[in-house]
Design goal:
GO molecular function, one term: sphingomyelin phosphodiesterase D activity
Pfam family, one: mit_SMPDase
Membrane topology: Single-pass membrane protein
Number of helices: 27
Distance between the termini: 112 Å
Largest sheet: 3 strands, antiparallel
Structural class: mainly alpha
Oligomer: single chain
Strand content: under 5%
Protein name: NSMA3 phosphodiesterase
Keywords: Membrane, Transmembrane, Transmembrane helix
């Protein structure tokens, strides 16, 4: 087809594949397309949308002609949309020079995107918009065509080995031009320069027709990553969004608002400002969304770990580093860290307290362990000892300190509120404890905390504002202070840029968190005890079932009420599993926080595991008052979870016990009269 015709059908084609933004057209429903159930459609779709397939060839063909396609701002993720509508351009270079007023004089703003951006915007946003598509329960997200495509695009545009494949070009001589900078159509506040795109350095000032292939490769990689991050990790409140912007930007925004309010007597700016502050996006990522983000995190670790070691002489390095190598160096701190932190924090606070949280947990643990995705293979040792975390990761841990410490505290708060007798919940506690107990990791986190809490002797108080800029490395201090201060500066800069200057840091190895860990250890002991009592109870039930089944009632009715748990249906294997997970988790927590044997024994005593009959004879936790015993919150927890109970027994004449619900009242009364008559005789 001629380019003019292709240009006309391209938006329709993209919409018919990925579905419309309003969710009315479902498209090919790639998220439910599985190789097992629809092998033909699955393979056809993957071939068609492959990075070297017909669809991408069309994209590159249109790219050569510098066509533009409108993407409505109203369908962008909430905070970005609100910001652009307020005429404040987000810091992400993806939106620069692209916002346009509608030609027809309508109300909506549009982004003018080149074909590659337009295609990728639709591809990424279809993960979020198509929520109402009919999903069958046996569909595994990680086998869907969508998941495989995300993986393919990441491997193609962010390669761990070699460079990005050049786009297939229709004319053998020329490369596809990279987008040329265009003047903005809306008067936007300009943003601080510390977040400049690599794109600007490498290609912004080159003639677009003979774009250097290296720059072309970095342009596609950077665009792809920015689109994925912007579309999938946008769940934050607007205040958080504004806090993320640099101080320079905030000042610009303020000036802009003041100038608007003076022109319009205050009302429009005031109303939009209030709207901006009242705005908070509804937060409902699906499990599939989280799995795709985990795939992105794992790939980015592998991508940045594939960086070649730096040459010894810095001069040589500055001349030889290719744009892609440069990109690997900054990819996580500049593009992902901040947004992923907020996304995770929001998930930790809002995700339901059930086993589906496992997806979020594994994504977090993947981010915390970049060494798992490093190219060097661990030496094959015969003994299955956990590998010690190498010192070379200390910088990563320090520059991601909050990811380790604040989110660990967030996890503790969740764990204290879940039922640890359930094997799935026990497994989550075990996973986290196992990761944090890797040799040398706790020590490195502690060192990071010490660097953060170091008194600022070198830096004058008035220079605090420097911390707001994540790219200031602190190297200007090195002439008059040791490397420790440089590291300390980086940690502080990370914490303050994510949480603001007034942040009150809660130490992971401080007393407050230690007390939470002790509380969790106590709950683990109680859960083990409950699992054992449930196990014993089900064993008793099995033994006496046959005898009591003749009388059509079960032993639980004979013993009084028994507070069961979902394990009653699960069976002995799961109880054994729960016990193993909790046992190991407790052991790991003791390693991480250096809990002593004495503390544990004391806790065991508290939990009543030292008492005979597995604590069955122990009363729930309560305090004596003049009105008798009053349950404490712990006591209530013990009763609800079947850990302990009051032994309620009838203490009067056994012949005059109240008639039970499972007894025949007329028969009981008749037989009682008969026995009384016999006794009198």
């Amino acid at each position: 087809f001629s380019l003019q015709e292709l240009h006309g059908i391209f938006p329709w084609l993209v919409e018919s594949i990925f579905g419309s933004l309003d969710g009315i057209i479902v498209g090919w429903n790639l998220r439910c397309l599985q190789g097992r159930t629809n092998p033909n459609e699955y393979s056809v779709a993957l071939d068609f949308l492959d990075p070297s397939g017909p669809m991408m060839k069309l994209v590159y063909k249109l790219q050569a002609e510098e066509y533009r396609y409108d993407f409505p701002v109203s369908y962008l993720p909430g905070p970005v949309k609100a910001s652009i509508q307020e005429q404040v351009l987000p810091e992400c270079s993806l939106y620069h020079n692209k916002v346009q007023f509608p030609s027809s004089g309508g109300l909506g703003l549009n982004l003018a995107l080149n074909p590659f951006e337009y295609y990728m915007f639709y591809f990424a946003i279809s993960l979020i918009t198509q929520k109402n598509s009919p999903v069958t329960h046996h569909v595994s997200p990680s086998n869907s065509a969508y998941f495989i495509l995300v993986d393919t695009y990441l491997k193609c545009f962010l390669p761990t080995e070699g460079s990005v494949l050049p786009p297939p070009s229709s004319n053998p001589g020329g490369a596809i031009p990279s987008p040329t900078p265009r003047s903005p159509a809306v008067p936007f506040s300009s943003y601080g320069m510390h977040h400049t795109s690599l794109l600007k350095r490498h290609i912004a000032h080159q003639p677009s027709v003979n774009a250097d292939p290296a720059s072309q490769e970095i342009w596609r990689s950077e665009t792809l990553l920015q689109i994925f991050v912007e579309m999938w990790l946008h769940h934050y409140s607007l205040e958080m969004y504004q806090k993320m912007q640099s101080p320079h930007v905030k000042l610009e925004v303020l000036h802009y608002r003041l100038s608007i309010s003076s022109k319009h007597h205050g009302s429009p700016a005031q109303s939009s400002y209030q709207a901006l502050h009242a705005y908070q996006e509804s937060f409902k990522p699906t499990e599939e969304h989280v799995l795709v983000v985990r795939l992105l995190v794992k790939h980015l670790h592998a991508f940045s770990n594939s960086l070649k070691p730096e040459p010894l002489s810095p001069s040589a390095h500055s001349h030889t580093a290719s744009p892609l190598e440069e990109f690997k160096r900054v990819v996580i701190p500049r593009f992902v860290q901040e947004k992923l932190y907020i996304f995770l924090q929001h998930c930790f606070g809002h995700w339901p307290l059930d086993a589906s949280f496992r997806a979020v947990l594994e994504m977090w643990l993947s981010y915390l362990q970049p060494w798992r995705y490093a190219p060097e293979k661990p030496p094959q040792s015969t003994e299955p000892l956990p590998r010690s975390v190498s010192e070379k990761w200390a910088a990563f841990i320090q520059e991601n300190l909050l990811m380790y410490t604040k989110l660990f505290v967030g996890f503790l708060n969740r764990a204290l509120r879940t039922d640890l007798v359930s094997p799935k919940n026990a497994l989550m506690v075990f996973r986290v404890a196992k990761v944090f107990a890797q040799p040398n990791l706790a020590e490195m986190i502690l060192k990071g905390e010490q660097l953060f809490l170091e008194p600022e002797l070198v830096i004058p108080h008035r220079q605090h504002r420097l911390f707001m800029s994540p790219t200031l490395g602190g190297s200007f201090l090195s002439s008059r202070s040791p490397a420790v201060t440089d590291a300390s500066f980086k940690v502080k800069s990370h914490v303050y840029s994510l949480e603001g200057q007034d942040f009150q840091y809660k130490q992971m190895f401080g007393t407050e968190v230690r007390n939470l860990v002790l509380k969790l250890a106590q709950l683990i002991c109680q859960a083990q005890q409950t699992a054992k009592s449930i196990s014993d109870h089900s064993a008793e039930t099995m033994a006496s079932q046959s005898f009591f089944s003749w009388f059509r009632f079960t032993p639980s009715e004979v013993n009084g009420s028994y507070t069961g748990n979902d394990l009653d249906e699960i069976g002995q294997d799961s109880i054994k599993k729960t016990d193993e997970y909790l046992e190991k988790a407790l052991e790991y927590l003791c390693q991480i926080f250096k809990l002593s044997e004495a503390q544990l024994t004391q806790m065991m005593m508290k939990c009543g595991t030292a008492q005979d009959e597995n604590g069955k004879k122990q009363l729930p936790d309560c305090i004596a008052s003049e009105n008798g015993l009053i349950l404490t919150p712990l006591g209530r927890y013990q009763i609800i979870n079947g850990l302990r109970r009051f032994e309620l027994q009838y203490q009067g004449d056994t012949e005059l016990q109240p008639i039970r619900s499972y007894e025949n009242a007329a028969l009981v009364r008749l037989l009682f009269r008969l026995s009384s008559a016999l006794n009198e005789r």
